[in-house]
Structure formats: structure tokens, C-alpha cells
Amino acid sequence: MGAREGKAVERLSRRVDGGERTLRSSIACEGIGIHSGRKAHLTLGPAPAGHGFVFRRLDVAGDTGVVPARWDMVSDTTLCTVISNRDGIGIHTPEHILAALSGAGIDNATIEVDAPELPIMDGSADDFTFLIGCVGVRPQPSRPRRRIEVLKPVQVQEGESWARLLPSDSFKVSCTIDYDHPHVGVQRFDFDSARQTFSEAVGRARTFGFLDELEWLRAQGYARGASLDNAVAISPNGVMNDGGLRYPEEMVRHKVLDVIGDLALAGAPILGAFQGYRSGHRLNNMVLRALFADESAWRWEGAGTEAQRVVA
Questions:
Q1: In the beta sheet, which residues pair with residue 140?
Q2: Sheet of strand 109-113, all strands in order from the earlier edge strand to the far edge
Q3: In sequence order, what are the beta bridge partners of 275?
Q4: What whole-number distance in Å separates Cα of residue 138 and Cα of residue 98?
Q5: pLDDT digits (tens, 9 = 90+) for 232-266
Q6: Do residues 22 and 101 share a domain?
Q7: For the chain, which terminal residue's Cβ has fewer other Cβ atoms within 10 angstroms, N or C?
Q8: Same domain, yes or no, for 140 and 274?
Q9: Rounded to an integer, what distance in angstroms lies between the CA atom of residue 126 and that of residue 85?
Q10: CA nearest to 192, candidates 272, 269, 252, 265
Q11: 3-state secondary structure of 194
């Protein structure tokens, strides 16, 4: 998808101010899971106001297959985010489609899939942004759009890695990565939703991996669907993909994309700034848990000084 189409999606979403937003109609795609290697069919569709993002596993009977996209449903963060319902039914790798929905200003959507893992597509959020652009955005003025306002710094840390949320007048994400590899090294990227479009700044950044880790990952049950079609592969000699990188610092931009998808599990858009150093899916979820555990750290935007406990 080109930058022009991505910008059109985000301009459309910004014109629908005041109320929540959903998709105008449903649209489908198919692909393979990057870890399972299993083929999956996905349908992205509209949802009522106040519905949020909800997944449904079509290979599981009845309501048992319904998995709300919420921070407190995260059950695993090894190499991807996994959300699971109370029956143990999981959705693997939802972060890219959630990032695309968030980047397009969507509040409510249903995502139906006939396998545990979502299709990875090209490894970025670009194909999902394209699907959203194909069907368009529908306003839902009956329910005002609310944002979660960060009131004070909240930080989590494991070893040298950390993530924090800070008060901000716009949604911002800043990530720094530090790999002991000559073709990656230290990279930093800052995204500000008030100045940049999601699709242009980070939406096309692909997931990445190192060739010397591939055999071990597959032995552990991961990366069985990974290829040069859906990931940036890095060898000791450099990037292996034809055409090279889409951005000079594509790896850290993908980390920003992941953060946007993981923070979409908050249940509403965040008015605040995320900063992370060597952070990943685990720390991204931990910082949300820390935020909502401290009722003085957040409130619904415009709700006065009293913080709210439950995210609807």
C-alpha cells in the first residue's frame, strides 16, 4: 500500500471527530501465521459503538471462541502477544492488525479468524491498513470518543530494559533498540500522532529476525512460517531481502508499530507518551498493568481530577 492511500485513511478518520468510529463494511484476507506456519482466513468487520476490538475464533464453537482485545487478557508475550479468554482460547500475534486499526482511528471492530494465529501478511501493518482503506470508516456519533489520559509517570523495568508512560498532549511512542549486531546496533525512532501519520511513519515496517537464530526458534515451535516474504532477515553479511530495507531504521520502527498495537489493548486511545529502551511485548503489557493498578495515574480525558478504575 502506498503512502497516499494510507494518508487518505487517516485523513478520513480525523474528519470523523466527536464520536467513535468503526468500519463501513467487512473485508477478508488470508495468509499464514509467522510462528505456526498455518494458513488462516481473516475477516475484519464493523462493530457497534462501545464494542471495542473483539476477536472471534471461527474454528471454536459458539461464544467460547470470543476473545476481547484487552490488556488483562494477555496470556503470553514470547516473541508475540497472545490474548486468551477464560476458556483458554487464544489469539496469537494480534498486535499488527490492532496497530493498523488504532493508526486509522478505529474504535470498534470484529476480527474473525479460523485459526489460533492471525496471518502475518508481509510482516508489517501495511496490508491491514490497505483493507481498512478499502472499506472506509463509519462515524458512530451516538457514543463520544473517550481517551485514557496519563496523569503521572509510570515505569516498569527488567534488567536493563524498561518502559514508561508519561503525561503528554498527544499520543507519542519513542523506542530505542540495542542489538550486538553490526547491521542493527543502536536505533531510535520517535512517533508523534499529532505530527506524523501511522501508515507513513511506521505502518510499513516489517518484523525482523536473525538468520543464526532461525534453526533454534523453529525447534522451539516458533518462526515456522517465517520467510523473506514476511520478515526482514539479517545475516552476518547484512539484510538478505531483495530490495533491502523500507526505512533506514526499519527495525526500531517496527518496535514502535508493536507498541502501538500492544497499547491498543488498553480499551481506548491513550493520551500519553510511551518511552521504551529494549522493550518488547512483555514490558508493553506490564506498563499497561502498572498504569491501571494505580488509580491516581490515569483518568478518562475531561473527567475532572478523580481517576477511574475500570476501562470499558
A1: 20
A2: 27-32, 39-45, 109-113, 53-57, 66-68
A3: 164, 174
A4: 17
A5: 999 999 999 999 999 999 999 999 999 999 999 99
A6: yes
A7: C
A8: no
A9: 28
A10: 272
A11: coil
Q: Which helix (H) or strand (E) holds 210?
A: strand 208-210
Lookup result for grid cell 533491502: 244
Q: How many separate helices (H) and strands (E) can be counted in the chain?
A: 7, 21
Helix, strand, coil % in the chain, rounded to nearest 5: 25, 30, 40
CA quadruple 248, 254, 259, 260: dihedral positive or negative?
positive
Residues 6 or more apart from 101 whose CB is under 8 A from it? 53, 109, 128, 132, 264
Instruction: For 126-149, give the DSSP string.
Output: HHHHHHHHHH-EEEEEEEE---EE
Cell 491498513 sits on residue: 129
**What integer pLDDT is reported at residue 309 of this predicted model?**
37
Residue 180 within any structural domain of the chain: yes
Strands (E), 218-297: 232-235, 238-239, 270-271, 273-277
**What pairs with residue 22 in β-bridges?**
138
Amino acid sitting at position 8: A
Instruction: Pick the closest to residue 122 from 259, 299, 241 (CA basis).
Output: 241
Could you list the active site residues? 281
State whether 166 and 294 are in the same domain. Answer: yes
Q: Of the candidates 191, 154, 146, 151, which has an alpha carbon nearest to the alpha carbon of residue 171?
A: 191
Residues 120 and 152 in one domain: no
Q: For residue 95, what are the β-bridge partners?
A: none
Q: Is the CB of residue 36 less than 8 Å from the CB of residue 53?
A: no
Domain residues for the domain of 276 are 148-300
C-alpha to C-alpha distance for 171 and 149, rounded to whole angstroms: 10
pLDDT digits (tens, 9 = 90+) for 104-154: 999 999 999 999 999 999 999 999 999 999 999 999 999 999 999 999 999
Give the integer Cα–Cα distance in Å for 45 and 136.
11
pTM: 0.92
CA-nearest of 155, 165, 166, 190 to 176 is 190
